[in-house]
Structures are given as C-alpha cells and as structure tokens.
Amino acid sequence: MNPDDALMPRLPIGEWIDAGIDWLKANVSWLFDLFSTVMDFLIGGLTDLLLLAPALVMVVVFALIAFVFRSWKLSLATLIGFAIVISMEQWETMMQTMALVLVATGFAVVIAVPLGILAAVSSTVSAIVKPVMDFMQTMPAFVYLIPAVTFFSIGVVPGVFSTIIFALPPGVRMTELGIRQVDAETVEAGEAFGATRGQILRGIQLPLAVPTIMAGVNQVIMLSLSMAVVAGMVGADGLGKEVVQAISTQNLPLGVEAGLAVVVLAVFLDRLTAAIGNPSGYPTSLIALIRKSLSRRGTDHAAAA
Amino acid sequence: MPPVISAEGLYKVFGRRPERGVRELRSGRSREDLRAQGLTAAVIDASFSVDPGEIFVVMGLSGSGKSTLIRMVNGLLPATDGEIRIGEEVLSRMSPAQVRDVRRRRISMVFQNFALLPHRTVGENAAYGLEISGMNRSDREKKAKEALGMVGLKGWDGYRPSALSGGMKQRVGLARALAAGTDVMLMDEAFSALDPLIRRDMQDQLVDLQQRLDKTILFITHDLNEAMRLGDRIAMMRDGRIEQIGSSEEILNEPANDYVAKFIQDVDRTRVLVAGAVMEQPRETLGIGQGPRTAHKLLRETQNSWLVVLERDRTPAGVIWQDDVAEAVRLGQDEMPWSDVHDMAVVSHDTPVAELFGKSAQHDAPLVVVDDEGRFAGVIPRVTLLTALGVIGEAESSSPAVDPPPGPVGPSTPGDAAQDAPTADDRRGGDAR
After folding, report:
1. Which residues of B touch A199 (CB under 8 A)?
2. Which of A41, A112, A212, B425 has the greatest number of CB atoms lying within 10 Å of its CB?
C-alpha cells in the first residue's frame, strides 16, 4: 500500500468520463448512428472508386497527378513505388487506407480551418482552443479508440473518428498561425482604405495564410496516416489491419510488406500535398510549365502589339 | 479656407488605463514617470492643422511618436484624449462605419514598406481602395490604370508586385492612394525604405503630383533633408511632443529651442537655400535696343567686365563682355557685340544653391537668375556664390544669418550694391537712357 493513500483521496476521473460516455451513448446515439452511416458510405464509396479501375491503370493516374502538381521525378517514384506495392499484393489494403486518410483529412480540415480562423480573430477563442488542442494531441492516440468502439462498435468508423480527433490540432494551429503572421502593415493597409474585418479576412489574411494553412493540411494528412494504421486495431480495413495481424502472428514478412506500403503511401501524400500548398516552389510541375508557356505567349503577343 | 485636418490637444498613451496617464501628463509628470508605471506616452498634447493643398511634414526620430500621430489621423489608432477633425467632422464621435467611410472617400495612405498585396497584380493593388468602396470592376480598372500612368508605371498592371523593384513598388503604393481619389493622403515614412537616388526621384514626383492634383499631404519622415525638400510646413517632433511648426526657412533661421537648433545643424543648407536668396542686383543692365557705345559707358562707370542685356520684356538676352564692347566701339559697329566664347547660364530663382555650383564652374559669366515668368531677377557671380557658401559654413556655429543674402563681396564684382540696389522694376526707366 502506498503511504500517500491516506492523504490523497482517489479521484475516479476515469469512471466519471466512462459515466459521461455511457450517458452520451444512451442519449445521443442517433448522432453516432448518423456519423456511422455517413462515414461508412463515404469510405466505402471512395474505396470502391479507388479499386474500380485495374491497379495498373490507377498507378498511371496517380503518377500523372504527381506530375501535374509537383514534378516528373515524383511521378517516376510513384510509378515504381506503387508498382512494388502491387507486387507485394498490398494494393487493395493501401487503397482502403488511402480512402480512410482522405475522408478523415477532409473532415479534419473542414473543422480545423474555420476553428483556426475563429482563434486568429478572437483572443478568447484562441485561449480556449489552445489547451484543448494540446490535450488532443498529447493524449496517447490509442486511448481515443476505446470510446470510439463504445460509440461505433468495431470497424472503420471508430478508426476514422479517432483519426479525425488526433489529426485535427495541427490544422487549427497552422490556420491560426498563418493568419496571425500576415504582415501587420498589409492588414493596416486594408484598414486604412476602409475595408471591413470580413473584407480584410477574405481579401488579405486568408489568401496570404494559404501556404501556412496548406502546411497544416499536410500535417493533418501525415497524422491521419499514422492514426489510420493504429485504427487497424479496432478492425478498420487496410494496411493497419495487416500490421496488427503481422504482430499477433509474429509474421515478419507480412509486417515488412505492409509497413513498406505505408511508407510509399506516406511519401506520395506528403510530397504531393506539399507541392499543392506551395505551387511556386515547383517550377517543373505540369501546371507551372503550362502557365509559363501561356504567359510567354502573352508577352510575345504584347511585344508584337 | 478651413483646414482639412486639425488636431487639438492630442494624447496617445499605451498601456492599461491610459486615461490615467493623460491626467498625470497634464499635471506635469514626465514621460519617464509614466514609463515606470508601465504606460507609454507616444503622443503628448499635439495640436496642428493642415490646410488644403499643403504638404505638411511631421519630422522626428524613431520613437518620437510620429507614426502614432499619423495613425490617429485616420483612426487606425484611437486618440486617448483630444480631438481630430477631418474637415468639420470629429473623428472620435464617428461610428466605425462612418470612420470606414472617411477612409474610403477622404483619406488614403502610403506605407513605409509598401504594404502591397503580393497575391494580387499591380493593377488589382492599385484598384484596392476602389474595390473596397464598391466600385465595379471595369471602372476601377480604368481608374487604377490612370493612377499607374501618373506614377510612371503604365503597362505594368498585369505584373505581380514581386516582379518590381522597391521604388516601383512604392509607386504602386502611391498609385493605390491616388486611385482612391481622396483629397488627403497620409504618407508614413513612404520613401524611407528606398535608396537615396530613387528617394530623390520619388520626392520630385510627389511634389509634381501634388501640384497637379492639389492633394493635401501629411508626410512623416525621420530625414530632415526630406522634410525640408517636401514640406510647405514642418512639425518637429521629439519624445511625443511637437517642438515647433513652421516653414523650412523659419525652422532653419529661428529654431524654437536648443533641440531643434541642434537638429538642424546637420542640414545641408545648400539644398534649402535657393538662388533667389543669394543673388544680387548688378549696378546696371543694358536694354537690347541700346548700342555698344552705351554699353561702353556703363561698363566704365561700373568698372565691371560684363553687362547683362535685357529684352524689352525684361527677359535676359545675354551677357556682353568688356573686350568685345571695346572692340565694337573701336570698329564703330552698331550691333550688340555678343561673345562667341561665353554663353549665358540662366537659372530659376528657386534652384537650390547646391545645384548652382556645377553651372557656375562651367561659365565665366555670372549666373543669371530669372523669376517664375522668366524675367531677369538678379545675378550670381562666382565669387558671390562662394561667399554665400562661406556664410553658410559660419552659420553652422552661429545659427542666424543665412537670409538676407550675403553682403559685400570681392572688389572685382559689383556686389557692393547688393543691399541698397534698387529693384528691377524701379530701374526700368533708368537704364542709362
């Protein structure tokens, strides 16, 4: 027995939370059911879509996307990496994981960006949001899985739920940071010409914060991916499930192959979203090449005239 | 005409409960006393007014409160105490919507670091103020193009600001303020971030635009030479207080206190002093209709080696020289014996003295000064110019005595007459007729 027990009463925080969760389950189960239905539909639909075309065709599509937004180098790496995943027979699971990541990211961004804007505009909101975000990010990710399973039973839905919670904070933080770090004089210029707060937000702060916000989105995707693997523990289909299975059966070959597929997917998503967030940093992307040739034609035209 | 901007007893104190700071300042506490309480007094009891069509310069070092002051004029910073009037209206009594309306229609602003929107083209930047006030696209694009043309950026409207040099960026900033069509422009250290050559250029352009468009300009700077070049009137600011308000000559010649006097020590007076202030009247001038013989007589009387010849409308026709005149008289010629060696250097009366040296060095003849209508006003022989420079040098230790023009100069010049010389108009009939 610990001698301190006499001095410090046992606070049953865990039980309180448990009671709260039970109450939620008893009273707002319709909300969880709705969430379940929507998520099942979205992730299932997206997975089906990604697996609709033959794997090799999809590889070419992804390689093209890589070229459009970044460079032929990423395009080539995608081609090779994804081909290896196909030969490791992890294509289907990788597409399932990708669907989960994309849906979770989509929801996280839809929540995070407006919240970040609010936090940037109001110091009060910021003061409340900050510790909540700290809490969400530092709480061990596995813990989210427990209530998630209570709410949604096992499957992909508790996975996407905890993924959204875990991946949300950098989106909020980077949005707030991006808006707050917009040059004060530029904002002042907006004010000096009589712009309203809304006009300044839409016309000056948000556009100038886009690179930082996109860096946040990139972070959200990376965190989603790491969480999506953990989500395999509660039965979400995909690479995570393969990894969990490999652990429980001490199957090293399977573990390595599934892990490699995660790496390939991570690199692809990271490089792609980084390029989307900062188009000017990638002059050899197809978009940049097309734009350049258009503007050259434009100046030629102007010179001729 | 009533002033466009008038400020009465303005205070700006930063910190918690700033009104307390104002009360303490009024009861005689110093800025340092306030700082000990965690309050920063940025502007203390400032009063001034800016007249329509005037360039009013607020000059002070960093931390003197000038940037705070300019931001109070358009309400970016609310005054802690005191009143700002824009025309007839009191700024602090307006609703936020009314303040925005004043900013859209009456007061535009140019910023030290340009504050352009990097994600918009130059044209869209120039049109920003009009976009905010709700003008439709085609109209505002047209106005933005006009404004860009005025500042010399015709054809640049499709580019991004990042493609432009610093000077060009600030031209866009200027065009944005011009396009807004306001009668007042606030310029916050607008040229301070530019290198000296470009800065001179922009200053000239600003003066030119101001004269053409009749804008009222409140200009903030820490550069005294810039203040002197631009300002119709200058307010000298130190530690939040306005120490003196006056024209550049008033401030140079009658500094209100030691601080201002010390400050203006380093002013390059040759840039402030103009030709009209150092020129002198020659004893005699020659009418164009008069011949070499009269010229000969006048030259003998004045003991000069040259004589200025005037047209009938008193614009200068040229300068004739002793030897040429003597030669013409000997040969019995009747035409004016123009020199084929020396030509005449004519300068306007408002040319800064600094710009006279080059011309003076190139010509043996004295510089001929003309007034705004191009009529003869006086001459500046080389020695006079050098003497004026000497007086400026002395003035640096003992501040008065830049104006009136320097007195007696060397014996070989007609300078003795400088003080009591009759004015050009008085002498009209007396040209040795």
Report:
1. 132
2. A112
